[in-house]
Amino acid sequence: MNQQKKKIHYAWWLLIGLSIMVGVGKNGISTAGGLFLTPVTQDLGIGMGSLTLYFSIASIVTMIFLPIAGKLMAKYDIKLILIVAIILMAGSFAMFGLMSSVWGWYLFSIPMAIGSVFITQIAGPVLINNWFKKHNGLAIGIMVAIGGVLGAVIQPTVGNLIATQGWRFTYIALGIAVAAIIIPIILLVIRMSPQQKGLQPLGMDEVETNEGSSAQQVTAVGVTAAVAKKSSAFFALLAFFFIITSIASFSQHIAPFAMGIGYDIKFAGSVLGAMQIGVLVGALSFGVLSDKIGAKSTAVFAMLLGLIPVGILLTVPENPTLFTVAIIIFGFVVSSLGTLGPLLTTALFGSKDYSQIYSTAAIGLAVAGIVALPGYGFVYEITGSYTFVLYGLAIMLVLNALLVLLAFKGKKKLEKAGLWK
């Protein structure tokens, strides 16, 4: 028993592999997509709003597919699902490099979104929830933080590649590279549950010792999906997901925003890389903070902190140092999407029907993409600046802080009604 305790639990190895998979998929494809917007619109003569409509199509597909994805992951071999997912996601992204009409982006955004649902949205929270019964917040923080480290390398590299090799070559090279990195990780590291390795979830023995309950009882604590979906806490969480995703969606417009006020694409790539440093620090901080002071207080703090970068970008965007500082802090706030979303779900509803509740609430993420991403593009087309978008971000940050408080009031109602079991 002592010898077994000295070994590193496989959950940590899975976390590293999972973090690389999610981080490379998110930064190599999802976040990097914003760097291509200005070069593509200029080269092909497409309006910013028209091109960014492909994000809306991807978000509609995501919204439809999220509930299905949760069921597929529970039913079928996770390795097969994730390999198909990364081929769809990375392959579609590479195909953008061969397109000459905006319809190509509209078409290939569909399989790209289906693959992305598994790789960047569902796999991380579900697997961490399966493998970690203790240090759950830290594990999610580490996953997002590793993504931040990878993004700090990937974003400037993509910016330089577009500047030197062109956007077509970069789309294709990036799609192939992402698939080549992720497929071996899926095959070698990813497992759906500890039982597949003959293990218990990390911290299960400590939870049993401290609380005197069985593994079966620990995993069953919380609210059923049917009850959760009818509660005010759920609707507040759904709205929170919608708004935080709308806020985070602005990261896709940082490159056009920077280039619109006179910076070049290399600077835009460097700034997006710097944003990932903020994501790194934020992910670790929010993970630890939520373990210490709770998801509620951490989420409110994160939303109010977001007012600082918005203020800087509204007042002194032409200062490159302050612009970079603002984007780093914005990255700190953006990390709350990957960190606090899953943690708030667990804090509000427990782990009884976690995957079903989270995947349904995450529809808010998809709806935000439908509205916000092209919405920001059309605001820029109409006004010639992102000023109104920034004011909108400030309002949304305050609203989200209030929604967190409302969600936890809803949780108290569930507890009083005896529905938390």
TrEMBL record:
It is a multi-pass membrane protein. Its main location: membrane. Gene3D superfamilies: MFS general substrate transporter like domains (1.20.1250.20). Keywords: Membrane, Transmembrane, Transmembrane helix, Transport. The keyword Transport applies. It is found in: Cell membrane. Residues 11-412 form the Major facilitator superfamily (MFS) profile domain. The chain crosses the membrane at residues 12-38, 44-68, 80-99, 105-128, 140-163, 169-190, 234-255, 267-286, 298-316, 322-345, 357-376, 388-408. It comes from the Bacteria. Signal peptide: none annotated. SUPFAM superfamilies: MFS general substrate transporter. PANTHER family: EG:103B4.3 PROTEIN-RELATED, MONOCARBOXYLATE TRANSPORTER. This is MFS transporter.
